[in-house]
Structure formats: structure tokens, C-alpha cells
Amino acid sequence: MTDRVRITVFDTSLRDGEQSPGCSMNQQEKLRLAHQLDRLGVDVIEAGFPIASEGDFEAVRAISAVVRRPIIAALSRACRPDIERAWQALQGAARPRIHVFLATSDIHLQYKLRMTRDECLAQARDAVRLAKSLCDDVEFSPEDATRTEPDFLCRVLDAVVEAGATTLNIPDTVGYTMPTEFGDLIATIRRRVKGIEKVTISAHCHNDLGLAVANTLAAIAAGARQVECTINGIGERAGNASLEEIVMAMRVRPDRYPYETSVVGEHLFGASQLLSEITGVPVQPNKAITGRNAFAHEAGIHQDGVLKNPLTYEIMTPQSVGVPDSTLVLGKHSGRHALAMRCEQLGYQFNRRALDDIYRRFVRLADRIKHVEDHHLLELIRETHKPAASATPLIERIPTALAAAASTGSHEPPVRPLVFPTAENGAGGPVSVSADHHEQEDYLWGV
Ligand code: KIV
Ligand code: ZN
């Protein structure tokens, strides 16, 4: 049992996330992702915006019917037709939530909604009242909160709390705020809004300046207890705060963020891969937590350190986020330790002299191609150690599953699928490893 404060994780991949270009999903795909989010342990799934389209309505309905553990939220503008449609879509949900939003910044009131502040306040209050008459769990979002005049923002929030809102979500709709500023805004809301102790404050940050996760963490430190986020950080424009980054930041740094979530870390990678597979939008290789390179070490000094003790260069284990294994990419910066390790995995153990020999050739090859893959290495081993080359064998063949797969050209999934991405070199076929150029300095000698 831990005494850490619990943070509610509200996933909006199926709503705000789906609004990102190229990320729209059909109903079956939404259902698959919703099941994965359930397995992942999120507390709330925002399943869609039912008034927006028939497809959205049906998706919210279908998810409500079969995903029973998390709260299912449906988005709605602050008007009767939207609220009633959202409620209709949520009919089968075990734990429904209506999420009402209305812009409150002067820019939005003047140019988009063409209404006064007083009209806005009255509409927000009436809409929450209507939603509350249908559903106990009502969330209200003052859109563009971070560009809203703070006194007016607090007046709107006073009114919606009085009307029955149970969650106040504070969106940084345009990704404009800074961490300390956003933390201050949450603190102001906590200090000034009447009845705030009865409701949950939530943060909803966009990533236009690359600060969505930092702003979300600042909000938590200032008292927010719900975070709205998406898998892989997908969402409008530059995206939303990434779920996996928020969760792992708190998990890796409990000294700074003594909070817990119900997210099962081991399912993070699977959720990221599934979303990418469904949308066809790849995860950028250097994406924190779930990118292909998030646990890849190419520099020799790093590889050597990780092999001796992963703590040297890894602040979390790949397994803790569901990545099959740490990735040692063999390239020109790799050291002999990593090379020996990979050869062993392929079934070859070298004595010191043989390893020196193969290492020199390996560096020359790596200088010509980007990543040295298993088949390159096997060819290099064969070239270097032809059977008749030595009376006493310098290499010893050891049986491993990986070796069997590599030498038979098996199409079985590799043991560590991320280790050597295929076609990375643009070289599907064998690369000649035997071309002997001038001796290159073994600059990683001893690493
Ligand atoms: O970014 C935003 O303001 C939103 C609201 C609808 C919550 O997505
Ligand atoms: Zn948003």
C-alpha cells in the first residue's frame, strides 16, 4: 500500500487524438484501441464527440456497451442538442461522463462565438445544469483557458461548480502557456474558485511549443489531479501531452512527483504500437518511452556501460514500459564489448585475438554502412574465419535460437525485434564485408 496521491488518467486519443491529420479511425479500430486503453489501466476514455458525426456517435455507443471498467466520456458543446446527443450515445455506459466545453477567452468570444462575457457565463452555467440533470458525472472545460482573463475564468468556474460540474478541466488549447505560469494558474483556481474542494481539477495541454508534458507536470505539482493526454501524444496540430511520458516521468521521479496512476507500464509500448498500426502514422524514432531508439545505445562507451550495468545509461528498464529488450545498435560507434555480445547471441564466441581481428573488420564495414545487421555480421565471421585458416579454432560455435534463425534466413519474428531494423541501410541483400581497405585506426580500442 502506498500513501502517494492518485492522479486520474483521462485518455483522449479517440477524440482529441483522432483530430490530428491522418489519425482518423473507423469504429472497429476505435474499439480495438479502447480495449487496449482498458488493459493499459486508464481511468477515463474520451470516446468521441457524438454530435460531430454518425460515426462518432456509433463509436461512443459501441465502446460504452463493451468497455465497462473505465469511465467513458463524450464531448459536447455547451448547447442542448450536443448534450442530449452525447447522453444518448452514453446510454449503455457503466460509468458515463458528459464533457461540456465553451471558449472563455476574449479572442474566442469576440471572433469565434461573437458573444459577451456575460452571455458566455450564462451559457456555461445553463449547459452544465442541463448535463447534470442527465448525468451525475459532468466535466466542464473553459476552452482557451490559458488566454482567458483570470478573474473572468474564475467567475465562470464558480458558476459551473455551483451548477454541478464535478471536474474542471483547464485546457491550454493553443499550447501557449509555460510551466510556471500554468502552475500559477492552477494555484489561483484552487485559491479562488468557490467549492473547488468538491471537484477535481484537470490539465489538458497541447504541444505547440513542445511543453505539453512539462505543463501537465507543473499542473500536477500545483494541485491538478486529472491529466488529459493521448498515446504517442497525437492530437490537434502539434498534439496533446503524451500519456506515456507523463506516467513515466512520475514513475521515474517519485522524489519530485510523489503521485501514482493506475496505468500498467508494461502495456505502454503495446498501446503505442497498436495506435501506430491502426493509423499508419509511425512513431518518431527518438520519441521518449516508445520510440524505436528510446532504449537504443549505439556509442561504444554507452554500450559497454549498459552491458555492465543498465543503470549507467538507462533511467528505466525497457521491460517496465513493455519494450522487449534494450537495443544495442551495431554501428561505427560501437565497441568490442557490444560486438562480442551480439556475436555470442548469434552463436559465436571469440578468443581475444579473434575478436580483435573481427572487430577491426567490423569497424571498417560500419564505416561504409549505417547499421551492421545480423546477416552482415555472419558473413563477416565466415570471411574472417574460413575453416582452414587456423589449426586451432579461434571461434567456438555455440547453439542459440537467434543463431539458428539468422543462419537459416528464418522469417520467424526476431528475438529482439527492435535491435536491427530491416532495410535500414537500404541493403536488404548481403553487403560484401571482405573488401580490404587500408588499416583503419581502432579508435574504440579498449572501450
Ligand atoms: O484543447 C481543447 O481546448 C479541447 C477542449 C475541447 C477540452 O480539446
Ligand atoms: Zn484539446
Sheet having the most strands: 8 strands, parallel, barrel
Poorly predicted ranges: 387-447
CATH homology superfamily of the largest domain? Aldolase class I
Average pLDDT number: 85
> Rounded to an integer, what's the Rg over CA atoms?
27 Å
Helicity, as a percent range: 25-40%
3D structure, described in words:
- The chain folds into two domains: 5-279, Aldolase class I (TIM Barrel, Alpha-Beta Barrel), CATH 3.20.20; 336-445, no CATH class.
- It contains 15 helices and 14 strands.
- It has helices at residues 27-40, 54-66, 80-89, 106-113, 117-134, 150-162, 179-192, 212-221, 243-252, 268-279, 300-308, 336-345, 352-368, 374-384, 401-408, and strands at 5-6, 8-11, 44-48, 71-77, 96-103, 138-143, 167-172, 200-205, 226-229, 259-260, 296-297, 327-328, 348-350, 395-397.
- α6 (150-162) links the parallel β6 and β7 (167-172).
- Mean pLDDT is 85; it is low at 387-447.
- Zinc ion is lined by residues 16, 171, 173, 204, 206, 236.
